[in-house]
Amino acid sequence: MDPLVILVLCLSCWLLLSLWKQNIGKGKLPSGPHPLPFIGNILQVDVKNIGKSLCNLSKTYGPVFTLYFGMKPAVVLHGYKAVKEALIDLGEEFSERGSFPLAERISKGHGILFTNGKRWKEMRRFCLMTLRNLGMGKSDLENRVQEEAYYLMEELRKTNVGLCAVRAKPTLDPLSHSLCPSPILAHALSLSLFLKKTISLNENKSFYSLPWCCLQRCFPALIDYLPGSHRKIFKNFTRTHNYILEKTKEHQESLDINNPRDFIDYFLIKIKQENHSQQLEFTIENLIATASDLFAAGTETTSTTLRYALLLLLKHPEVTAKIQEEIGHVIGRHRSPCMQDRSRMPYTNAVLHEIQRYIDLIPINLPHAVTRDIKFRNYVIPKGTSVLISLTSVLHDDKEFPNPETFDPAHFLDDSGNLKKSDYFMVFSAGKRICVGESLARMELFLFLTSILQNFTLKPVVDIKDLDTTPVASGFGHIPPPYKICFVPL
Prior knowledge:
490 residues; metal-binding; iron ion binding; microsome; heme binding; monooxygenase
C-alpha cells in the first residue's frame, strides 16, 4: 500500500479517536452500554423498535443512562420519577429540542416542532393564543367538531359504494361491505384546508421506521449524499409546503383583518403587525412550517388513536356495550353528543384514557435537550446534550397500572366507578413541550367515538379471537395492525 495512503489513514483514525475521547470526556454523563468507536451503540438498539430496546437497557443500567448515536451522546430517562424530575421539576432546563437532522433539513429552522430559543417560544405562544381565539375549549370549536362528526356519520351510512357500511348483519362476503377505517377517519379529522395532504403524511410516518433513519442521526452528513426513502419524504413535505403556500396566497388576497377565519389569517395579521418592528419571527416561512407542524402533529395522531380505538372496541365487545349503555342513559338517540356529557360519562372517559395508555402512541418523545449545563441526580449533563424520554415506561408502569400490557378500563376507575385521574397519564408528554393541541384532541376523540357508537354497532369481519391488537412500531410511533370493520346502523 502507498505510504501516503497509510499516513492519511493513520492521521484520520487519530483525529477521529481524539474527537471521540473529547466527546466522551464531557460532563459527568450516566453510565450505559459501552459504545463502539464511530458508530456508538447503534448495534445494541433495535432501530425498528427503539422503545422496547430502551426498556430492556434500563433493566441493566437503571432509570438514567447514556447511549451514543455515532459520536453524540443521548441521555435516556426511563420511569415516572426520572421523567417527572426532568420535564416538570426542571422543565425549563429540559425544554430544548434535541438534534433531529432529517427534520432540521426539512424545517430549515422554522416552525414549532424542531425550533428552540426565542423562535420556539414565540411560535408556541402564538399557536396557543390563536387556537384559543379559534375556539379551543369553547363552544365555537365544539360546534365545528360536531359538524365534522355529523358528516362522518353520513359517510359511514353510505352503502352505494359497497365499502363504508352495512345495514344488516355482515353478508357471506363481509369484506365487500367492510371498511378499512384509516382514510375516512383521517379525512374527517383533517381541516378541509389540508384534506389533500393526509396520504403523504401517512407515507412520511412509515418511512421514519426504517433503519437508516437512525443512521442519519449518527451521521447527518450522509443525508444529502445517500439515496433512499428520505428523498420521498423531502418531496412529500415540499408538496405540503407548496400547498400551504398556495392557500396562503389565496388568504392574502381575501384577508379581512377584522374577521380572521383561520390560523393562516391570524398569522398573516401578525405579520402585518410586526412588519415595521425588529421582530423577525413572523414570516411566511414560519407560517408555512408552523401550519405544517400543527397539522402533522395533530391530525395524524388523533386519527391513528381513533382508528386504534375502533379495533380495541371490536376486540372487547363487552366494553363497547357498556359505553353504548352509558350513551343511552346520558345522551339518548335524538341529539348529538356534546362536551358537557363527558363529565357524566365516567366509564366512557375511562375507556378513552385506557385506549391512549394502552396503545402508547408515541413511545419515545421527540428528542429533548438541556438548555445549559445541568446537574441531574449525581450526573452533569452538558448544554445541548440530547435527552430521550421513554413515555412507555410511564404509561406501562406496573405499579400504577397493574398488568399494563392488558387493555382494562378499570385502570382509570375507582371503586365507586368514577374516573380516577393519574399523574402517569402522559400521552401528550409533559412540561414545557406538552402538546399544544391536547384539549382539541381530547374533544375530537370523545365526540367522534361517542357519535359512532350512538349510531352504529361495530362488527368484525373475522372471529374476535383472530383480531390482533398488538401495536406495530412505526418510527417514533405505534400504529394498529391492518383490519377491516363493519358499521351496522342502529
